[in-house]
């Protein structure tokens, strides 16, 4: 029996979602993927603050990814974030919005 898993990689410049089909616990097959520009680190500067415009781009991409997952009957969604998000001073606020 297989199930569909989506992995969302939120990078500094782009976000992508990979649709995987899992067979058992050791075999995965890539079915499809989409990538969107988010430029999350744009204008962060030394203050390490993710700007509202970048947050909005991330939200647009994630909403698109959610529709993609719904259409493809995804049962598990996993998220991975770039160092830009992990080290941002406002990461808690950004994550709560997401």
What does this structure look like?
There is one protein chain. The longest helix has 20 residues. Strand 2 and strand 3 form a beta hairpin. This protein has a 4-stranded mixed β-sheet. The chain is an alpha+beta fold and 98 residues long. The chain is elongated. It has one domain: Nucleotidyltransferase, domain 5 (2-Layer Sandwich), CATH 3.30.420. Helices cover 33% and strands 37% of the residues.
From the structure above, extract its key features.
Nucleotidyltransferase, domain 5, 4-stranded mixed beta sheet, 3 helices, 4 strands, 33% helix
Measured distance between first and last alpha carbons: 32 Å
- Count of distinct structural domains: 1
Main sheet attributes: strand count, strand direction, barrel closure: 4 strands, mixed
Radius of gyration: 15 Å
Question: What would you give as the CATH superfamily?
Answer: ATPase, nucleotide binding domain
Element-by-element helix/strand order: EEEHEHH
Instruction: Give the helix proportion (percent range).
Output: 25-40%
- What CATH architecture do you see? 2-Layer Sandwich
CATH topology: Nucleotidyltransferase, domain 5
Which class best fits the helix and strand makeup?
alpha+beta
Mean pLDDT: 93
Question: Biggest sheet: strands side by side, in what order?
Answer: 3-2-1-4
CATH class identity: Alpha Beta
What overall form do the CA principal axes indicate? elongated
Low-confidence stretches: none
């Amino acid at each position: 029996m297989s199930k569909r898993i989506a992995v969302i990689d939120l990078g500094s410049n782009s976000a992508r979602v990979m649709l995987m089909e899992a067979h058992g616990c050791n075999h995965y097959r890539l079915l499809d993927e989409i990538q969107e520009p988010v430029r999350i680190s744009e204008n962060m500067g030394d203050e390490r603050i993710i700007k509202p415009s970048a947050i909005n781009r991330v939200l647009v991409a994630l909403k698109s990814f959610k529709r993609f997952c719904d259409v493809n009957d995804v049962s598990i969604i996993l998220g991975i974030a770039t160092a830009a998000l992990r080290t941002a001073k406002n990461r808690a606020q950004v994550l709560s919005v997401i």
